[in-house]
Structure prediction request, 419 residues.
Amino acid sequence: MGFEEFQTPRGTRDLLAPLSWQFEAMRRLALEWAARFGYDLIETPIFEKSPVFLRVGESTDIVQHESYRFTDAGGDDLTLRPEGTAAVARAWVQHGLSTAPQPVRLCYFGPMFRRERPQADRYRQHTQFGAELYGSESPLADAEVILLATRVVDTAGLRNPEVRVNSIGCEECRPRYREALVQFFTERQASLCEDCRVRLKQNPLRLLDCKQDVEIRKEAPDLADYWCDACRDHITAVMGAVGAAGQTIRRDPHLVRGLDYYTRTVFEVGHPSLGDQVALFGGGRYDGLSGALGGAPAPAVGFGMGIDRLISALPTPPEAESAPRVYVAHLPGFDQQAFLLALSLRERGMAADADILGRSLKAQLKDAGRRAVLALIVGGTEWENGTVGVRDLAQGTQDNIPRDALAGYLAERLQGDRA
RNA sequence: GUGGAUGUAGCUCAGGUGGUUAGAGCACCAGGUUGUGGCCCUGGGGGUCGGGGGUUCAAGUCCCCUCAUUCACCCCA
Prediction:
């Protein structure tokens, strides 16, 4: 077990194989889809100046209580990024991407940090894949990012994800709704839970997704009754486009989201195999964000996806990197020949392994049986005659192959083996 | 931040009412085959029994504290 002071900090973990390779496979799958949709990969720093996140979520738990904020030796106020959207927005402003050919499509994949109490599928360091689409107000932009996210989830093996969506309105219609909502809940303040009384003052919209006061909220005013025409048309078009693409999507009138930079569209996808309220990905439209960070105002939509959760929700893990497929075993005195042969096979694109523990042939073959499909046996009279033994570890059959024909022979064998 | 459960080998776990050198299975290593794995047999390495304190002649076992893990709440990916 070891000493506690030398273990991973709470809420973090080491990714060992095969999980580590599964993450890599998910990274490739996600970025492949993003590239097909035309998204460029952006890598922002893992920490930012704290105001980048503060500006974006002043009233959210994420930046208020859950961020890893620190002052470095030079006195800079820094924060480990708790989410991707604000950091990408900062980059968008900093690099003047408002003048790039529009729209601008950016995606990211990397660790995020939140200081929460860890539990199933929630970590203090977790990996998110996300995409941000700048420069389009069109509902098709919302539909595009939703479809990118669902394609990733679906092709990762979690079939037919169901998107929940809502519109929290715009500057025109949201204040009217908020007013009605505050009035409604103020009248019933006495029967609200403690948290909701705080929400009532700080972030009234969040009253909608309280899990305790479900009865009360049933009668609360519905956003849909307050949408302006433009907002109504927008969400209708988003749902229409996503639906037309064959993706299940339905409105959840109680869906509002934790970050307070959203405008109009918010969406989320969960999964029964995870906790009921645990989201696989979530996102929305945030037309005011770039302006809040001092840049040109620009419409934008995006999402963040929890890779740790996605992998743990998959019925079968993503295809992990395979172990070395060829093991070059050697007879006593031929360890260097085996070492060099393995190297030359790697140069030819094969995954090869050779013993460097000075083990007996028996021990080498035992090891080979675990990590390879073919074992080469180097040494003895065969080697002197210019051949190498090739043993099929599954079948138990063995042939002698001339050394100069070996590479081609192996390539063919492994090809067939794969198919 | 709040509440519950759990901490014995790398992993999964045994260790009634406290009693000599703490066990098993799997995994790992070696031998049984002077050059051939997967099965079998034999042997071996490996443990601050989470940590600290207390009760006792004696604590893995009882008590207290602490740390960690885990599940739920909160919130989120």
Q: What stands out?
A: Residues 19-36 of chain A form the longest helix (18 residues). The mean pLDDT of chain A is 89. The longest strand of chain A covers residues 104-113.
